[in-house]
From TrEMBL:
Pfam families: Glyco_transf_90 (PF05686). InterPro entries: CAP10 (IPR006598), O-Glucosyltr/Glycosyltrsf_90 (IPR051091). SMART domains: CAP10. The lineage of its organism: Eukaryota, Viridiplantae, Streptophyta, Embryophyta, Tracheophyta. It comes from Liquidambar formosana. Residues 194-443 form the Glycosyl transferase CAP10 domain. This is Glycosyl transferase CAP10 domain-containing protein.
Length: 524
């Protein structure tokens, strides 16, 4: 408190000094009344600010939660916010032959005790939320536009007065829809009562479908807003975190929060210098031609491109209990290759988390966080039209610039551990849904035949690994803090500069690569 007022005082003194220095001297008598009033006003301001600081400080330090005991939650309120405990509200699965209902006693509001002076700002990649919603910035989103997205959607999700309703249209691949909805249910548990009313359409398939060229020209209608897991530069689909953050049951990849801890421990055990000095990839090559092309770079008796490539046989793995496919144990190489499949690949975040240098084969698609990654800083770019030579150069470069290579691996894993931690994933969802809802030009209504969804209706009937992953990723209770502060949109010049820097560093690497191969060829 002392710091604030003295800071203000200094600023005030500085202002006075400047204006005094530039003012023509006048007889003091004339100036006195104005100065006195200003001083008085200023003192008053100080008192008000001080009172505000003190009161907010007292307020939070003696804060006690006021959730009613009807939900049987344990509420611990201490004398200081630092020690105020989270309340935990377990799932209430009805027993026996009763169809599962949503509990009426989960709090619908929850007071957070944020520090008014240091609300953290969200990571920079949140700024892409503005870019993804820009097509509707001028016009808003009408009901017709939303209905237009129905033809490819797997479900419609509606939030009205804090309750969530889902209208399912068709079966998604595996349990993508279930775990996506589960994720949104956890968001609701985390920030009860803070999600706005909205209606949205969600498509769980791989590739984006809303082509921007269909919505240009004089007769353009607004594009349909469609949520999915990835986009590309030709489409307008809105990107949302994929299901695997809550677990990918079919291939036994556990929820992100715990997996991140495993990977961190693994990185601590296997340091970069001690890892195999090659580029590793393991995956399913049959989903894309570019992956089959990659396999031609595998080491053979005739050639060593510094690549060690393996085919992932998920059926065999599942029979063997996924012993070979624990992603946390796949950080044994100094370089790891990321290559897209049919669209973006979920594997990306697991690869970037490794502390290894990620060799990114030129991607077409983006998910919600990767657009902010910088080549040569977070990853090493690989040409898609000359993969083998590109990989060979990357690995040779890294092995002869070990400090720089390690720094790239570290920058990526720091980004993943910090900016992509689950707290930020939830806040991204929160802000995306909020900004989206601000654009709606109609009042969301509960669709006929839609079912109320909550964590109970999703998790109680679940079984096996589905149930296990849901229990593991369950948000235990309301968050004590508010979401991070949303950063403003990029100024067009800033965004342009960012994209140019990105393109330039990729070109730079291509130049190095060319020089490397030219000099090798000269030697022969
Ligand atoms: C809490 O519960 C008490 C009864 O136990 C009731 O009188 C009171 O209005 C409730 N407060 C809120 C905020 O719901
Ligand atoms: C669980 O829900 C049932 C109704 O579905 C309710 O009777 C019961 O009190 C709830 N239990 C807890 C612990 O809140
Ligand atoms: C549940 O109870 C109803 C009637 O009480 C009965 O018709 C139904 O078969 C029961 N279902 C199961 C799965 O036991
Ligand atoms: C959307 O439009 C408003 C004004 O109409 C502007 O303030 C805001 O920056 C725009 N958002 C984006 C992402 O351009
Ligand atoms: C726009 O609409 C008008 C009248 O509906 C039609 O004649 C014209 O061909 C359309 N133009 C384009 C580019 O679709
Ligand atoms: C890393 O390993 C060392 C010992 O090998 C241990 O003391 C330390 O706690 C570990 N750190 C993490 C974050 O696991
Ligand atoms: C790549 O080469 C390694 C080493 O020879 C071998 O074990 C592996 O099966 C090969 N991968 C493929 C996809 O052929």
């Amino acid at each position: 408190m002392h710091r604030f007022s003295s800071m203000m005082f200094r600023k005030y003194a500085l202002d006075r000094h400047i204006s005094a220095g530039t003012m023509i001297w006048q007889p003091p008598l004339k100036k006195v009344p104005a100065t006195t009033t200003k001083t008085l006003l200023f003192l008053l301001l100080i008192i008000i600010v001080a009172a505000f600081i003190i009161s907010s400080w007292i307020d939070t330090s003696t804060f006690s939660a006021t959730i009613n005991s009807t939900n049987k939650a344990i509420i611990v309120s201490e004398n200081h916010r630092k020690t105020r405990k989270k309340i935990e509200i377990p799932l209430n699965c009805s027993t026996g032959n009763v169809s599962q209902t949503c509990p009426a006693n989960y709090p619908t509001t929850f007071e957070t005790d944020d520090d008014p002076w240091s609300k953290p700002v969200c990571p920079d990649y949140f700024r892409w939320i503005h870019e993804d919603l820009r097509p509707w910035n001028a016009t808003g989103i009408t009901r017709e536009m939303v209905e237009g997205a129905k033809k490819s959607a797997h479900f419609r999700l509606v939030i009205v007065k804090g309750k969530v309703y889902v209208e399912k249209y068709k079966q998604s691949i595996q349990t993508r829809d279930v775990f996506t909805i589960w994720g949104i249910m956890q968001l609701v548990r985390r920030y009860p009562g803070r999600l706005p009313d909205l209606e949205l359409m969600f498509d769980c398939d791989d590739r984006p479908v809303v082509r921007s060229r269909d919505y240009r020209g004089p007769n353009k209608t607004g594009p349909p807003p469609l949520f999915r897991y990835c986009g590309d530069k030709w489409t307008l689909d809105i990107v949302f975190p994929d299901w695997s953050f809550w677990g990918w049951a079919e291939i036994n990849i556990k929820p992100w929060e715990n997996l991140l801890k495993d990977v961190k421990e693994g990185n601590n055990k296997t340091k970069w210098m001690g890892r195999e000095p090659y580029a590793y990839w393991k995956g399913n090559p049959f989903v894309a031609e570019t992956r089959q092309d990659l396999l031609t770079c595998n080491v053979s008796e005739k050639q060593d491109w510094n690549a060690r490539l393996y085919v992932q046989d998920w059926i065999l793995e599942s029979q063997q209990g996924f012993k070979q496919s624990n992603v946390a144990n796949q950080c044994a190489h100094r370089y790891k290759i990321y290559i897209e499949g049919y669209a973006w690949s979920v594997s990306e975040k697991y690869i970037l988390a490794c502390d290894s240098v990620t060799l990114v084969v030129k991607p077409q698609f983006y998910d919600f966080f990767m657009r902010n990654l910088q080549p040569v800083h977070h990853y090493w770019p690989i040409r898609d039209d000359d993969k083998c030579r590109s990989i060979k150069f990357a690995v040779d470069w890294g092995n002869s610039h070990k400090q720089k290579a390690q720094a790239i691996g570290k920058a990526a894993s720091d980004f993943i551990q910090e900016e992509l931690k689950m707290d930020n994933v939830y806040d991204y969802m929160f802000h995306l849904l909020n900004e989206y809802a601000k654009l709606l030009k109609f009042e969301p209504t509960i669709p006929e035949g839609a079912v109320e969804f909550c964590s109970e209706t999703v998790a109680c009937p679940a079984e096996g690994s589905h149930k296990k992953f849901m229990m593991e990723s369950l948000v235990k209770g309301p968050s004590l803090t508010s979401p991070c502060a949303m950063p403003p949109p990029y100024a067009p010049s800033v965004l342009g500069g960012f994209l140019r820097r990105k393109a330039n560093s990729i070109r730079q690497v291509e130049k190095w690569e060319k020089r490397y191969w030219d000099s090798l060829n000269e030697q022969h």
